[in-house]
C-alpha cells in the first residue's frame, strides 16, 4: 500500500523541482500556482517523514534522501506514462491498411516504441512504417503515398493536409567538449573552428540559414553534411561546431561524451515536429496517434533530454492538443 499523502501530483512536482531547482519554473511546467507547488512538496515530505530538498538553497538542491527518492520517482512516472501511451491507441482493427512515415530523428528512441504500439492494435490490417527526412515525408504525403507523416513543420502546409503539432524542438549550439569554458563568450571561443552546416536540401538547414540571415550572421561555407550522425561525429572529433536541436543531439548517443550543448547565443528559435494527415480522413486515428506520440515523446525523449540538459526546461516540450 502507498502511504497516505504520496500522490501522483506530488511526485510530478518533486521530479520537476529536482530538474529545475525553481518553484516558478515548476509552476509553469505543471500548470500549478507557486503556492500550490510548495504545498505539494511539503505534503510529500510530510508523508515521507524527511526533507527531499534543501529549502535554504536557491536554486533548490536535493538532499541525500531526495537524490535516492528521485531515482525511484522517475522510474514510477516513466512507467505510468508509457502505460498511458500504450493504452491511447486501443482499437485500429477497422482499418484495412495504415502507412506512416516518421522523421529519422526519432529512430533511436520513439519510432521502435510507436511501431510496437501500433502493430499491437492493427491486428487485421496491412501496416507500413518508413523513416525518412522531413522533406521526403512531405513529398510522400503530397503524392498520397502515406496516410500519416510525423515530420518537422515547414510553417505552411499543402491544401488538404491537417497539421497537429506534437513537440517544440528548440535549436541549440553543440561544440567539442571542453572548448567552451565561459558560456558568456561562446562565439569568441569558437572563432578558430568552422561552422558545420546541414546539407542545403534539408528543411533543418533552411530553417537554420534563415535564422542566421535574420541575425545578420555569415559564416564561412566549408562543410555541408547530409547526415546528422556524421555531423555530430565531426563535432566530437573537434573539426568544428554546429547548430542542431535536442532531437538531433539525442540521436548521437555514441558521441555525447565528446560534445557539449549550449543555449544558442544569437537569438533563440525553435522548430515544431507535427503529425500530418489528409483532411479527407475524418477518423479518430490521426488524433489518437498524435496523442500517443506526445506521451511517447515525453518519456522516451524529453524527460531524458531535460535530465541531461536542464537549460532546455520549458523550451523542449510537448505541445498539447
Q: Number of folding domains?
A: 3
Radius of gyration: 21 Å
* Strand order in the largest sheet: 4-3-5-12-6-13
Which structural class matches the secondary elements? Answer: alpha/beta
The tally of beta strands, per DSSP, is: 13
Using the coordinates above, name the CATH class of the largest domain.
Alpha Beta
- Separate helix tally: 11
The name CATH uses for the topology of the largest domain is D-Maltodextrin-Binding Protein, domain 2
Shape: globular
Write the CATH homologous superfamily of the largest domain: Periplasmic binding protein-like II
Low-confidence stretches: none
Average pLDDT number: 86
**What is the beta-strand fraction?**
15-25%
- Give the fraction of residues assigned to helices: 40-55%
In this structure, how is the largest beta sheet organized? 6 strands, mixed
Element-by-element helix/strand order: HHHEEHEHEHEEEHEHEHEHEEHE
What is the second-level CATH architecture of the largest domain? 3-Layer(aba) Sandwich
Distance between the termini: 34 Å
Short descriptors:
321 residues, alpha/beta, Arc Repressor Mutant, subunit A, D-Maltodextrin-Binding Protein, domain 2, 3 domains, six-stranded mixed sheet, five-stranded mixed sheet, 11 helices, 43% helix, globular
Report on this model:
This protein starts with 7 loop residues before the first helix and ends with a strand. It is globular. The model has no long low-confidence stretch (mean pLDDT 86). The longest helix has 25 residues, at 64-88. The protein has 321 residues and is an alpha/beta fold. It has helices at 8-20, 23-30, 34-48, 64-88, 110-121, 134-142, 186-189, 203-214, 228-236, 246-251, 285-308, and strands spanning 53-54, 61-62, 97-103, 126-132, 148-152, 161-170, 172-176, 195-198, 223-225, 241-244, 259-263, 270-278, 317-318. It has three domains: 8-87, Orthogonal Bundle (Arc Repressor Mutant, subunit A), CATH 1.10.10.10; 90-167 and 270-318, 3-Layer(aba) Sandwich (D-Maltodextrin-Binding Protein, domain 2), CATH 3.40.190.10; 172-263, Periplasmic binding protein-like II (D-Maltodextrin-Binding Protein, domain 2, 3-Layer(aba) Sandwich). The protein has eleven helices and 13 strands. Strand 3, helix 5 and strand 4 (126-132) form a beta-alpha-beta unit. Strands 4-3-5-12-6-13 form a six-stranded mixed sheet, with helices on both faces. It has a five-stranded mixed sheet with strand order 9-8-10-7-11. The protein has a two-stranded antiparallel sheet with strand order 1-2.
